Amino acid sequence: MFDRVKLPESVKIVEVGPRDGLQNEKQLISLQAKIQLIDELALAGVKFIETGSFVSPKWVPQMADSAMVFKSLNRRAGVCYSALTPNLQGFAAALDAGVDEVAIFGSASESFSQKNINCSVAESLARFQPLVEQARLQGMQVRAYVSCVLGCPYEGDIAPTTVATLAKALFDMGCYEVSLGDTIGTGTPSKTAALLDAVLPLLSPDKIAVHFHDTFGQAIANILVALQYGISVIDSSVAGLGGCPYAKGAAGNVATEDVVYMLNGMNISTGIDLIKLCKAGDKIMQQLGRTTQSKAALAILSSIP
Ligand code: HMG
Ligand code: MG
């Protein structure tokens, strides 16, 4: 299994902290703190930042100011600032706010689809289709997520073939990349390998990203498996921020600092300055009054004066 393909020489990190991370915070975070976090991530060399989401403010209050976040951004050259959009209403708002790219988010589990976006999987595909068409007319790229790829909070195990079929449908709809989300972080390296064995015959590794939450501390191990399958796009969240409001108990995404530390040690480039990244994570965690979830950040920050 592990010698299937060569490891990638470089990895694209998709930083999801400002969206997937902050969406789960109960206390409202100021616009200024969000803008500062996003800018510090860009200054640390992060080139792809999921900056907000255009969803119902009743469902996710923390993201209610996403339009303001986009309008107030200090845009840095070469950085893609993206947002989640569940439907045409969200897409129109995202377009108006000046997003660079949007992402649609489906689920491999029917129950999670209902809890998260209030519709069945089939209905979600019908909603996404015109959104993707609109985006393409605007010359905008669309990313897709599949949630619950390694387990659902309501249904338990999910068949890898179900994930593979949905991922292919989203790609065929016109999305350029499909991010496989272990929403509740129950995956293990063996489950990750079984998933990729089902998905990669339908979609090549350059069309796939991995998105691991770290509830059981398995995310780094799972990422290592994905790298060995030739995947070179990794979603992560600075300081390990986050969770999912519709997946109770799920921890944040794997910490970007831990991923970058591992990749640096494997001579796989990301273009990210690890010290600056750790400082960005430290600042937002101080604002939230918590300690980082990143072991690499803890070690690095304690060693600098
Ligand atoms: P709904 O209630 O079925 O929507 O929600 P509706 O079309 O019936 O409209 C009802 C109301 O919502 C109306 O307002 C609409 O205007 C409003 P009212 O007339 O009652 O005042 N509305 C909107 N408002 C703002 N933006 C919109 C929008 N659409 C409708 N785009 C909906 C359906 C999808 C909107 C809702 O379920 C929702 O917002 N869900 C989002 C949930 C969410 O953001 N979850 C977290 C992100 S997913 C995730 O974290 C997983 C991921 O990280 C990958 C992984 O880890 O696996 C991506
Ligand atoms: Mg997520």
Core attributes:
binds 3-hydroxy-3-methylglutaryl-coenzyme A; alpha/beta; 8 strands; single chain; globular; binds magnesium ion; TIM Barrel; eight-stranded parallel β-sheet
Quaternary structure classification? single chain
Bound molecules: 3-hydroxy-3-methylglutaryl-coenzyme A, magnesium ion
Helix content class: 40-55%
What's the overall geometry?
globular
* CATH superfamily (homologous) name: Aldolase class I
Known CATH architecture? Alpha-Beta Barrel
Q: Please report the distance between the alpha carbons of the first and last residues.
A: 43 Å
Radius of gyration: 18 Å
Task: Give helix and strand order, one letter per element, not per position.
Answer: EHHEHEHEHHEHEHEHEHHH
Extract low-pLDDT stretches.
none
CATH-defined fold name? TIM Barrel
Widest sheet, order of strands: 1-8-7-6-5-4-3-2
Indicate the topology:
Blueprint: E1 12-15, H1 17-21, H2 31-43, E2 48-53, H3 66-72, E3 80-84, H4 88-97, E4 101-107, H5 110-117, H6 121-137, E5 142-147, H7 160-173, E6 177-182, H8 189-199, E7 208-212, H9 219-228, E8 233-236, H10 256-265, H11 274-288, H12 295-303
Helix pairs in contact: 2-11, 3-4, 7-8, 8-9, 11-12
